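#lab-general

N.A. 3:47 PM
ok so I finally got the sequence cleaned up, no stray characters, all 257 residues accounted for. can someone with queue access submit it? mine expired

B.Y. 3:52 PM
send it over

N.A. 3:53 PM
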Amino acid sequence: DSSIYSTGPSSYNIILNTNACYNTIINNYLKAGSYKEESLTKSVSNIVVGGAHHNYIANNYLEFEDANSIYLSQWGSNYFDGGISNYNVIFNNTLKCVVVPTAWCYAIQIYGSENRVDSNRVIGAYRGISGDDNTTIVNNVLVNLTGKDYTTYSLTGAEFGIITGSNSIIQNNTIKNSVIFNSAVYGGSHSTISNNHIDVSGNAHGIEAMGDDINVSDNVISVTSGSGIYQVGKYSVLFIANNNITATFGIGILLKK
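B.Y. 4:20 PM
back already:
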């Protein structure tokens, strides 16, 4: 139940350092700003977690600029240790990006295993939710994703809505009102991508299945010029069933070796 505003180098709202485990962070208003460093504007994260496990981050409202908002980071700086973080739950938070972001800005970025991202609302970001192997991403709503080039400042759209590594679950998420140039959802080997609602514009693929033994089922997908479901590479066992795909100027399902 705290209100925290931070700006300046490494001035994060909240830090969980090595072995800061079994903490609960709930019902806070967190705002992270930016600062000038020579000719550059740099932004800071709201919550950084490094080498910390079994934490519960829930029911918070977070505003951020061109930085990762909730960041489970293996890299440290100043007061922050950094390190792989496992078995954390990120639940029912609202994360709002208040600028047009660049590639520095992921709403939720996770380095670690067996983490769960559930029932969050993401408003704006260059990447919405970015996870490592063995990540569960369920019941989230992502809107207004977009982005610009870091050097030219030209509008590009967002890179990904949701992206994970292998052995992950991406289920019951909604991605809408977003301009994406890569893929709305990207999943790795041995993952399940099901019951998601995707309605995006730009050159985005709806679902990019990059690996072996991936289940893509029961999704509703609407894309403009990309493919509804896309895979390229020498992979095996891609199960596709019961998807509803609208590809206005693109391809419904595109598989390439």
